[in-house]
Write a structure and sequence with these properties.
Organism: Mucilaginibacter lutimaris
Protein name: Lipoprotein
Strand order of the largest sheet: 1-2-3-4
Helix content: 10-25%
Order of helices and strands: HEEEEEEEH
Number of helices: 2
Shape: globular
Distance between the termini: 38 Å
Length: 121
């Protein structure tokens, strides 16, 4: 039993050392309207985990979420001052059901508030 505890600690330490914002984990950037960008990073040692950040490069950088490329994605809609974020996942069965999609979480940001707070995550 102690062997499993030691193994769990070693694995946990390895995963905690992963810096999803590291330049070597950088994948690409998507340009959006109003000089907003979505930065995409690889997040994790194994699998297809991806982290996304919304930024204007000077005033704020907000973590939108982490997801598995095979099971879902993060949808970002910019409507004037409002930014709507939805984490969407495909239905699960014996394999991902790509025709079934559900919204797992929703978040709304105000562009003015983000710029005023200078929030960098």
């Amino acid at each position: 039993m102690k062997k499993y505890g030691l193994l769990f600690i070693i694995i946990g330490t390895l995963f905690s050392c992963i810096n999803s914002k590291s330049k070597r984990n950088y994948k690409y950037t998507l340009k959006r309207v109003n000089n907003l960008y979505i930065e995409v990073y690889k997040a994790g040692l194994i699998g297809n985990l991806t982290s996304q950040y919304l930024t204007d490069s000077t005033n704020f950088r907000v973590h939108l979420g982490t997801f598995d490329d095979e099971n879902g994605y993060i949808y970002c809609k910019i409507d004037g001052d409002n930014i709507y974020i939805e984490k969407r996942e495909h239905g699960q069965g014996s394999s991902p059901q790509f025709d079934t999609l559900k919204v797992v979480s929703k978040t709304r940001y105000s562009l003015k508030d983000l710029k005023k707070k200078h929030l960098f995550e």
